[in-house]
## 1
Amino acid sequence: NAGVMQNPRHLVRRRGQEARLRCSPMKGHSHVYWYRQLPEEGLKFMVYLQKENIIDESGMPKERFSAEFPKEGPSILRIQQVVRGDSAAYFCASSIGDVSGELFFGEGSRLTVL
Amino acid sequence: AQKVTQAQTEISVVEKEDVTLDCVYETRDTTYYLFWYKQPPSGELVFLIRRNSFDEQNEISGRYSWNFQKSTSSFNFTITASQVVDSAVYFCALMSLTQGAQKLVFGQGTRLTINP
């Protein structure tokens, strides 16, 4: 059973470009979480999604950031008009749904904005 | 509000020494989970342990052990006979079930360096 798959693992963008990060949850998992890790910091919750629904986006910046988890396909974290401060590692995690179930993290996508 | 404090930013020890990483948390919830994750230089997050707030038994797994003290809101992590491969950033995290979702609140991390 493959783990949580994130791609790309590394992404370089220039200021003003768009970044798209993808996350395929573990098989059978319908709950996806995105976390951001700024350099030298711990991870911070961004958004929690279930299939076709955003459940909690309390950690998402108000502008330029959006997330989706369509019925088919991976979850996408989209950052428009990137700025240098968006440079970070973005981690996706998935769970089966039950809060007592384990949360599995992907290996992260590292975004560098030049 | 939920908060996790890892007061030790960096620790450096010589191989084979024992080392304890501190974690103090704050929550008003009675039901919660505590976690430890390891982040090696390669960057991925490696799950180490999850502990339910109702289970205060200490746990040992090989060279790793965890001391959960609800009275002091601490969940400390000890590595016995440390090895160079233990060098990593270690994160303590708190998840409150009353928030519904599995939202983790992470500490700032402790960078552990084991010198040969």
## 2
Amino acid sequence: EAQVTQNPRYLITVTGKKLTVTCSQNMNHEYMSWYRQDPGLGLRQIYYSMNVEVTDKGDVPEGYKVSRKEKRNFPLILESPSPNQTSLYFCASSPGLAWETQYFGPGTRLLVL
Amino acid sequence: AQKVTQAQTEISVVEKEDVTLDCVYETRDTTYYLFWYKQPPSGELVFLIRRNSFDEQNEISGRYSWNFQKSTSSFNFTITASQVVDSAVYFCALDTDKLIFGTGTRLQVFP
């Protein structure tokens, strides 16, 4: 089954404790992206990747890191999480051509205390 | 600047009513795509439709229909004979060189 998976789905952590949210897709998509969803703000792009070893900042990259060592994986790293990073995070992928439909993972709900 | 506006924060209807969700976008690009996504209470994002800027034909898929009007920069979504299962947050999105979402409209359909 074609899908985007994220782990963990729910995470409670404390300020400053490094964490990684994994994202994996099995569709051989070139383009992958991370978004955060906050009430009243919709979804905002954090980082995206056009292909392996090619990443770039989205609209709200501060406090986040990503890597793309393999085509299928695109982990989101919070080196020192803060309470303002409490949010719902979505990973997405698409074939990579311009304007292709992005398919979203199930979401990761993060609470930083 | 690219922007998507969903002015309706929340809409409540009773089952079987028709409901229209508004979406207004801004872009100077001539080539772009518009999307609608549904986010049910379970939280996932479900793709509904993708429409390119050169295709202004309205589209119908079952109880769902979309009205794209370039003249007013709008891409409105109508649900006919709404059902409780339509209760969700609906996002409109614009893709020029990146995907930009509106703030969403929460639709509640009561039995």
